[in-house]
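Lay summary. Proteins are chains of building blocks that fold into shapes, and those shapes determine what they do. In this project we predict the shape from the chain. Here is one chain we studied, written as its sequence of building blocks.
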Amino acid sequence: MTSDAAPQPSFEEALKRLEDIVRALETGERSLDESISLYEEGQRLKSLCEARLADARLRIEQIQQNAAGDAVATRPFDAQ
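And here is the predicted shape, written in a compact code that computers can read:
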């Protein structure tokens, strides 16, 4: 079974494209159809970025456990 889906961009590539889309939409120079298409692409990229960040959070939480699975660090992920 082969996949026809294009490879997904890295987090950094997705974020850059999302920033480009936001700038393009902010100018107001795009047609309605193009704006809607860009918005849809932006929503997909936003979801991709959120999923990648959630995965990174889980990976960091796993790293903060010792071999026995006991928590080595107890502070929340987003605490500074």
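What the prediction tells us: Residues 32-63 form the longest helix (32 residues).
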